[in-house]
Amino acid sequence: MKKLKITFNAPVTLGFVMICFIVTLVGMLTKGISTRLLFMTYHSSLSNPLTYLRFFTHVFGHSGWTHFIGNASYILLLGPLLEEKYGSKEIIELIAVTALITGLINYILFPNVALCGASGVVFAFIVLASFTGFSAGEIPLTFVLVAIIYIGSQIYEGLVIVDNISNMAHIIGGIAGSVTGFFLNKKK
What we know:
- By secondary structure, the protein is an all-alpha fold.
- 69% of the residues lie in helices and 0% in strands.
- Helix 3 (49-57) packs across helix 5 (88-109) and helix 5 (88-109) runs antiparallel to helix 8 (167-187).
- It is globular and about 50 Å long.
């Protein structure tokens, strides 16, 4: 009988979740100071170099363990499948583009709102995962249903429900995942 071993199967996914874990832990230990300084995007001076860094790093910060565990669960579920299908480089690019776009839109359109967390990345992964059965000239029904259920619910909640959740990040993440899925699958 062959011996079982644990493999490091999805380096980008595992690395991303590990960074989020460490950032959340340090954020808790510093009572949120490190999160506000480096891992949360908000309307700050454009002369501050950290403003530009936070456009990317806000996806690592989380408001607490519940926030982190919710996002990490989806990322760990979907990330390895996506990384195997599309490659590590493409997943890094998707995370970076999603972070940048959500950070910039939050900065420009919501100057009084701070944004942190990987929810936009989660939604990008969810929508990208629905493209697994994509063929040229076809739109997978799973994509249509995911778009209606996930993105539609975020639009509805953004208009109707007042809470501390960034529906904008979810919508942008979903759009990033769908555009990425379309182009990556068109290439293949």
